[in-house]
Amino acid sequence: MKTSNLTKVVLSVALAVQLVSADAFAGSKFKEVLLTNKKESISDPYFQIKVSKVKELTEEEAMEFINEASEGTNKAITIPNIPPKPPEVSEGTKEGGNKSGTNLVAAAGGGQTPAPSGFFDGVIMVVDKLIAIGQKIIPTIEKGKAVVTNNPMSAVSVLPRLDTKDPVVHDMGDWSLPMTKHYKITYANGFGSEVVSFVYSISYQYGGTYGGQGKYLTGIRASARNITISWGFDLDASSQLIQISNVGTAQNVVAGATIEISYTVKNFTRQITTNESFFVAGDGRLFKLD
Q1: What is the mean pLDDT of residues 117-127?
Q2: Whole-structure pTM value
C-alpha cells in the first residue's frame, strides 16, 4: 500500500513538471509567433505609409461631398452669422464693475498672453488692440470619428479689445457670409492604395466692424468629414489657435489669426503626425503657410 501511494506521488510530480514545461514551451512559442508576426507586419507594404498628399478642393469638387453629406445622416456644418455668446458676468461685477479700478483688458498684459481666469473665461489671447475668444484647442477627429460640437465657444473670434467690463462686442455689424475652404488629405501604403483619407474644412466670417471701423473675424473653425480609414489604421486630429495679430494700421485695425491643424495617422507599427498652418485675415484672405 505504501509503495503504491509513493508511486502515485512520484507520477503526479512528474506529470506536473511535464505540464509546466509544456505551458512554458507553449508560452515561449506564442511569444515567438507574436514577435514574428509583428516583424512581418512591420515589413508588410500594407502597413507602410509611403505617400501623403494635401490637395485644396475646387468649388465643384467640394459641392460633390457637401451634397452627399446633406443627403445622408451627416449634415454639412453651417456657422451662424453672429459673434459667440459672451461669458456670464456676476451681478456684483455688473453693478460694481472692477472695484480695484484696474482696466481688466489691459491687465491681461501687452503682447500675446493667456487671459486671466474668472471674469475672462472664454478669452484665450490678448494682443495690442485685439482679443481672441473661444476654445484654444479644438478636437476635430477622435479615433477616426468626426467631432461635432454645438458649443458656441468651439469657434474662435478675433474682436476689438475695449476698455469695458464685457470683452464681447454686441453691436458689431457688416459680417460677411460664412466662407469655407476644403482640403483633402490622403495617405497611401506600399501597394499604392489609399488607407486613410479625409477632408477638413476651414470656415470663418470676416469684415465685422465696430463703430464703422476695423475688420474683425468670427466663427473660425476647422471641421472634418468624408473620413475613410482602412483596417489596422487610426486617425486623430485637432485645431489650435497659434497667434493673433493686427495686419492693418493702428487707426484701421485688420484682425489676423494663425490656425494650426494637427493630424496623426497611426497603426501598431508606426505613428505619423503632420501639422498644417493657415492664416486668415479680417479682410477675407486665407493663406496656407509653408
Answers
A1: 67
A2: 0.69
